Predict the 3D structure of the following.
Amino acid sequence: MSKAPVLLSFLSVVALVACSSSGDDDIGPGDALASAQVAGLCDRACVKVLECEPTQTEAECIGDCSPFGTIYRGDLFVDLIECLEAKTCAELDNGSGCDGVFDAVVPTATAEAFLAAMRAAETRCAATPFNQSSSDDVWILLNDPLLTALTACTDDPCDQVDACIDGALDLP
């Protein structure tokens, strides 16, 4: 089963998962976050999550947040967290979230290269449809090192592209 839908469903609830600030101003577009940065962001995110969703445990929150902190673009994750940290629980509950942060993402050159490679693979493998699609907006949200690995997957035999992408995403 593809893990990409898990990623897409996470986007709809990320407003309550990633609500912190790291103070890292040197994270460029497309950069990946280091493990320590992800841990710090997720620790702080869980303060907001537990404030807004007291039925969730800290362990659940960390478990939800950490995998996505490692795949998102670092600049996006930090911007999202800073936006959400400024929101009240009431604002988040009534839909006044931080969609604008996602809307403002400009694809990196690496994201553009992946999308072109994915479109080419979809054409080459038309008889073997993929679980993922080059039209999914989620791809531009991923960090460049991950996108580089995903781009390599598009050269795999048609029946192996999905498995390669799922393996590179390595989502729970």
